[in-house]
Amino acid sequence: MSLAPLASGRGNPSADCIADSAGGLTFDLVDCGPSGSNPDSWDAALVLRRRGGETAADEVRLPLVHAGDGRLRAVLPSTMALPEGRWDAFAATAGGEGEEQRLVPGVLDLRSLVDRRPDPDRPSVVARIPYATKHGNLSVRGWARAPHAEAGEIRLADGVVTVQGRLYGVVAGADAVAEARCRRDPALAVTVPVSVEGGALALGYDRHFAFTLAYKELAEAWEAGEDPWDLWLRPGAESGSVRIARILDDVPDKKEIFTYPVQRVCSAAQAGPYYTVDNDLSVLVAPVTG
After folding, report:
1. CA nearest 145: which of 9, 280, 275?
2. How far is Cα 113 from Cα 103, in angstroms, rounded to an integer?
3. For residue 288, how far is the Cα from the chain centroid?
4. If you average pLDDT over every residue of the chain, what do you get?
C-alpha cells in the first residue's frame, strides 16, 4: 500500500485507489461537488485521458456516485477497454460547467497486484497501475497484451543472460524460439531456442519458458553508440511473436528500479538487459564506460 504524497498546495481533490487482481480500479474521492448537487449522473465523472491522445477513444468518463462518508466513487472494470498508455486522471463535478480538476493521489492500495497470476488460458492480459507522476498528480499506466510473455527471473553469467518467464494466452511448443531484434536495423535478428518446463513437457508445450542469450552474438553487429535489441518470444514455427515484458506487479516504471550489471563483450563494447519505458525487456549494447 502506497501512502499519499505530500500536499501539492494547489487545492486539487485527491483520490484513493484500490487495484484488484483482475485489472479493475476503484477510485474514492472526498465529495468535492457543490452542496445539494447530484453526482449520480454523467455530469459528475472521473475522467481518464490518455497522454498524447487525440481521438474519442483516448478519453474514458466514469460516473461518480455517492459511496457514503462524504465520498464519491468511480469504478473502472477490468472488462472495460483501456488502450495501452498513460492515462491522466481528472474530476469533473456536477455544476462545475464542464470545469475539470487534475486529481492528486491519496492512498494507493496495490497489494493485489503483487505477484499477479492471471488465468493463463485467457486470450489477453490486462494490467493497470495507478501512480503518482513526478509532478504529484494521479495517473494510470495501462497495458493490454494478447497474448503475453511475462518476464520473471533474470540471471547473469559470463557473457550471457538467461530469462525465465510465463506465457499467457498461448503455449510454447517444442520449436519455440526467442528473438533479439536490433532496433537500429530490424533486418538484424538473433534467434535462440526456448526450453519449456513443468508437467506438460511430455506433451511438447507448457506455460513456462526459459532461454539463454549470448551477448557476443549481438555485439557482432555493433557499429558504435548505443544499440538496443528488443526481446520477443515465438511460441511456434507458425506463431506470431510476443513481446517479452514485465507488467504483472505493482511497479509502473521499471527502467530506473530494475537495473542489472553490464558486462564487457569486447574491448570497446559492453552489454546488459534493461526494461524500457513501457516495461518491455531489451538488451543494450553500448560503448564501454568507466
Report:
1. 280
2. 22
3. 30
4. 88
**Mean pLDDT of the region 236-244:** 91
Amino acid identity of 232?
W
pLDDT in tens, 251-266: 999 999 999 999 999 8
- How many domains are there within the chain? 2
- What the block records as the C-alpha cell of 49 is 485521458
Q: What is the Cα–Cα distance from 205 to 198, expressed in whole angstroms?
A: 9
- The answer on 131 and 160 residing in a single domain is no
* Other CB atoms within 10 Å distance of the CB of residue 46: 25
The set of cell numbers assigned to 123 is: 486470450
Cell numbers that stand for 155 in this block: 540471471
| pTM of the model as a whole | 0.88
Domain annotation covers residue 5: no
Query: Residue 25 in contact with residue 130, Cβ under 8 Å?
Result: yes
Phi first, then psi, for residue 55 (nearest 5°) are -115, 170
